[in-house]
Amino acid sequence: MRHYDIVIVGAGITGCAIARQLSRYDLAIACVEAGNDIALGSTKANGGLVHAGYDPAAGTVKASVNARGCALYGRWAKELGFGFKRTGSMVLGFSPADREHLEKLLENGRANGVEDMRIIEDDEIWEHEPRASKEATCALWCPSTGYVDPFEVAIAAAENAAANGVEFWRSAAVDAIDEHADGFVLHTSAGDLSASYLVNAAGNGCADISRMAGGEHFELVWRQGNIAVLDHEARPLMPLYPIPTSVSKGVIVTGTVHGNTVITATAAIHEAGDNDTYAADVEELLSGARKLVPDLDTRRLVRAFAGGRAVIRGLNDFLIERSAAQPRLFQAAGIQSPGVASAPAVAERIEGLIRQAGITLIEKPGYNPARTVPEDFDLASPDRKRELIGSDPAWGRVVCRCETVPEAEIVAAIRREPGAVSVEGVKRRCRAGMGRCQSGFCQSRVVRILARELDCDPADVLLEDKGSNIVYGPVKEVR
């Protein structure tokens, strides 16, 4: 049985960020994930906004990590090579009552350490975003807001962690945890492993992990959010927010690092595990978006999806602490919005808690904070494209026409560590299938490449997780 100094449970953006943060040190570390890939939970069903930090109530854990996480994104993006745009954002107001709310957000943001915010009006609103509603009378301008692809961040952090020695156990659902005086034994669907310390970053499974490890007992509420994705725009929109509600930031319209428009997100309590997309929720998104951007062509919808936020009942905050009930357990639980924005700072805080617990952290020789960024054919110069095709003809075989993804890029996505093992895993790494046709043209070819690279039958290739087989029976030209 393999023993680790620290085991992180959960490979969403939080768990992968923690893995990357701790990979600097001379420790045996594993990251255990129930799904067969990175970022399959709330991280995948997320709009990717890097919120600035003016929204969480002052004095909360959220407030303490949100602004810090937002500030860290510039360095993380440079080191890990993921897409990040710090565009600034506006919360639009349409009435005197809205302006009063903006004043409160401004005051709260300053208390949380968010800099350079101010309330603007009239033409200055449209100088920042010409497509913002002309009905808006005022706005809270915040220059530090930005956006990322959250699963790209998680994958980048995981790849860097793996390059620095962290081992990833995927398809390893934790069934039970035995406590011992010197640590834990985790019984997983991929086998048993032991750990001196645990970090609970299990997202919507964090209550179960805490209970099994002898930590705090709490209950999660499934706050479901629907998200809509529109086709590429000539110019990505700046993030535009409405006046927030007591439970969410409301329906937000934002651009993405790849030029789409995302409308995010509804917030309603549903049964745990409900990832269905509902027509009424999608219409709520589209109508809310049109209030902020009246000329938004919502007919250009290419995808709608849903996920659940890990909300601890009775605690509208993050739980980031060393467990009082089990001192070998560190909690990074209840990470709802703004989890993406906070991830680098949550990782930083977990490192600090581990130090406070007296665990020796010695930087390992050869630690490298920089990730080797995979080649993106679509963004390469003409000369570089010719060079790539000359080195390997697979660079010239375009599989995904919408996003211009060649076969060589798909192969690289599978061979990286931890690499893609499903069609959706390929999509998250190199965008094959992300475009207008949503895999209508390229999926069969991606299945064929996966079958070849994984040395399996096409019928064994999965769309996503266990049981999502695409092909049944013989496939043309494949025997």
TrEMBL record:
Q: Supply the source organism's classification.
A: Bacteria, Bacillati, Actinomycetota, Coriobacteriia, Coriobacteriales
Q: Which residues form the BFD-like [2Fe-2S]-binding domain?
A: 398-452
Provide the FAD dependent oxidoreductase domain boundaries: 5-349
Q: What's this protein's name? A: FAD/NAD(P)-binding oxidoreductase
Which species is this UniProt entry from? Collinsella tanakaei YIT 12063
Concerning SUPFAM superfamilies, the annotation shows:
FAD/NAD(P)-binding domain
What PROSITE patterns does the database record attribute to this sequence?
Answer: PROKAR_LIPOPROTEIN
Q: Name one Pfam family in it.
A: DAO
